[in-house]
Amino acid sequence: MLEINDLVKTYPDGQQALRGCSLTVPAAEVVAIIGPSGAGKSTFIRCINRLVTPTGGSIRLDGEELTTHRERRLRETRRQIGMIFQEFNLIERLTVMENVLAGRLGSVGFLQAFLRRFPAQDVERAFELLERVGLGGYENSRADALSGGQRQRVGIARALMQEPRLLLVDEPTSSLDPKVARSIMALICELAGERRIPALINIHDVGLALGFAQRVVGLNAGSVVFDGPPSAVDEAVLTRIYGADDWRDAFRQEGEEDRHLGSREAVS
Ligand SMILES: Nc1ncnc2c1ncn2[C@@H]1O[C@H](COP(=O)(O)OP(=O)(O)OP(=O)(O)O)[C@@H](O)[C@H]1O
């Protein structure tokens, strides 16, 4: 379980990115974090894995306070948090298998990793994960030969290879076309449920957030202004999160992107 209490982040230039956010996420729950640009979504996610140091508040993972960890403890904790990124962050010239095994780099010795000698059970687990994410048979393909959706599947397998206690997902679908984006969201949500890992997904696409997450948290100007199930997100809630007309524009743009891609697919 992830428990965040009164999280505050003020950047050195005085920018108040988070103004006291609280959120408790039980095991296996998938929470989508939505909000307009600059609301604090990335800062929120980055405070949890400490890419950003919080100014105040508490972050507990299975009862363990993370905000006070330094150096070695911080590295250990980061190893237990799976990150899935917008740009996949794969090593392009390496194979799919090598990229997935990279999820274990923090846990095997430096020499073993340097010589690419991973324990047999890690290799076996990597095969299983590749099968699970739909990439069985791709283990020897180079990462740069894959499509965007396939790359993200490698990113997901790599994150799970760490046997994480928490999944932090940052705009996982922004580089993907709408159909692939839906399949990736579905996969992340299924895996979080199967493995009983809480997941926080920072996502700008409201339709995907409502379609797949079990819970939606709306941020505006560094504060949580909505926290509830997708079924409770109505026009009034979207207006509270995005402001009067902005959310209508966001939906309209997505619809146009869908139509545009649909017509491109029909031509090719
Ligand atoms: N390193 C930084 N130094 C100073 N201010 C920052 C820094 N990073 C973010 N901010 C500010 O903090 C606020 C929240 O930014 P953040 O990137 O967390 O928002 P966001 O909701 O993720 O936005 P987007 O959807 O555009 O990525 C913004 O006003 C931003 O300008």
From TrEMBL:
GO terms for cellular component: plasma membrane. The keyword DNA-binding does not apply. The keyword Oxidoreductase does not apply. It is found in: Cell inner membrane. SMART domains: AAA. InterPro entries: AAA+_ATPase, ABC_transporter-like_ATP-bd, ABC_transporter-like_CS, ABC_transpr_PhnC, MetN_ABC_transporter-like, P-loop_NTPase. Keywords: ATP-binding, Cell membrane, Membrane, Nucleotide-binding, Translocase, Transport. PROSITE patterns: ABC_TRANSPORTER_1, ABC_TRANSPORTER_2. CDD domains: ABC_PhnC_transporter. It holds the Pfam family ABC_tran. It is a peripheral membrane protein. One of its GO terms (molecular function) is ATP binding. Residues 2-246 form the ABC transporter domain. This is Phosphonate ABC transporter ATP-binding protein. It comes from Sediminicurvatus halobius.
